[in-house]
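We were asked to recover a plausible sequence for a given structure. The inputs and outputs are reproduced exactly as logged, with field labels preserved.

PROBLEM: sequence recovery
POSITIONS: 382
GIVEN STRUCTURE:
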């Protein structure tokens, strides 16, 4: 990463000679390629295009931001994701048992609690886990039986983090996320931040937390503040760009926003409609709502449909429900936040529709524009 153009020219010269003499291509590995400036990256481009070198660049940054687009477009991007708990555990076990490259020549006993702690706080980073193991082994004395015992206390000291009761596959995992979600739902940002900190400290998956926040934004904030869903999904996207540790900021922002937002669970009205659909028989779609394409017009489909945008207020009180469900309401807006305004509009529209469909008992398909204007005026003057 500290190489300049002079060193690069020497590498390219050698690559050109090897290809000419032996017909082989040279693999050039550039660690932390994002540290190369634009001029250095530009210098690579013609040799990558000609095939003289096969470039492998490693970076901890987003390559779409830190590497010139010409190189990115000629490359395949592989993202190294954090190791799973089982993978990290296997890395540590190999380091303990490998006599040639690890501590296999020594007698080492790692307690289950110590192993769990090393795995949990390494954050899926094998280097962190191995460094902590090395420090624990090298700083611990051999006991009288010739064994180096790595206890939970030793593991905590080696990684400078205290273990907390948190099993990511057990009760603590589900209980803590439950406390977190209930705190956000209950509009207590302080409690929400506490439970969030507890999960992050214990090494909980940030993606898991963000998924739960996205669900909460729809289920518990909902139409009272539709922006909440945008905040939650944007936080998840931002985290993918940033990663930890700075990625905690968008998680915190989403947590505070959703905790302090007005709440509504009116989206659950969908399940009432779903339950009805499960139990009902065959219900015919009103003729004016049917598709006019695929020769539907020849069958009379859609002929009495009125286009709402051609009517006053861009609304027409025509029939949309099946005949047997006229007047059946599933969605019941709350009086919270933005949904309060939604409720005002919906009451006006429902009243207009009910009045007109009731007056035109013999022709309930649609409402004429002059009539909806009259009804709307009457409602607004009430």
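RECOVERED SEQUENCE:
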């Amino acid at each position: 990463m500290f190489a300049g153009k002079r060193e690069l020219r020497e590498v390219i010269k050698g690559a050109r000679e090897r290809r000419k003499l032996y017909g082989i291509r040279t693999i050039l590995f550039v660690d932390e390629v994002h540290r190369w400036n634009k001029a250095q990256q530009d210098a690579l481009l013609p040799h990558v295009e000609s095939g003289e070198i096969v470039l492998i660049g490693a970076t901890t940054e987003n390559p779409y931001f830190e590497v010139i687009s010409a190189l990115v477009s000629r490359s395949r991007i592989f993202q190294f994701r954090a190791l799973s708990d089982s993978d990290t555990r296997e890395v540590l076990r190999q380091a303990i048992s490998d006599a040639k490259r690890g501590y296999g020549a020594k007698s080492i006993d790692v307690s289950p609690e110590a192993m769990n702690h090393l795995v949990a706080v390494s954050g899926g980073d094998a280097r962190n886990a191995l460094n902590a193991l090395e420090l624990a082994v090298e700083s611990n004395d051999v006991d009288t039986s010739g064994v180096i015992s790595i206890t939970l206390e030793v593991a905590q000291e080696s990684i400078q983090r205290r273990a907390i009761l948190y099993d990511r596959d057990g009760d603590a995992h589900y209980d803590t996320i439950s406390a977190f979600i209930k705190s956000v739902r209950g509009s207590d940002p302080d409690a929400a931040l506490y439970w969030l900190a507890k999960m992050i400290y214990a090494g909980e998956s940030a993606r898991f937390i963000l998924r739960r926040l996205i669900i909460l934004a729809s289920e518990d904030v909902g139409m009272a503040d539709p922006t909440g869903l945008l905040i939650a999904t944007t936080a998840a996207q931002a985290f993918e760009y940033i990663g930890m540790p700075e990625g905690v900021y968008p998680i915190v922002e989403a947590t505070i926003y959703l905790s302090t937002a007005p709440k509504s669970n009116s989206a659950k009205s969908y399940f009432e409609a779903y339950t009805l659909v499960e139990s009902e028989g065959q219900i015919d779609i009103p003729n004016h709502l049917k598709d006019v394409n695929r020769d539907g017009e020849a069958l009379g489909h859609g002929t009495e449909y009125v286009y709402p945008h051609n009517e006053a207020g861009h609304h027409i009180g025509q029939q949309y429900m099946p005949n047997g469900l006229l007047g059946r309401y599933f969605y019941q807006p709350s009086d919270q936040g933005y949904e309060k305004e939604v409720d005002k509009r919906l009451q006006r529209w429902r009243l207009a529709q009910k009045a007109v469909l009731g007056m035109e008992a013999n022709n309930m398909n649609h409402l004429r524009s002059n009539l909806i204007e009259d009804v709307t005026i009457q409602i607004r003057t009430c």
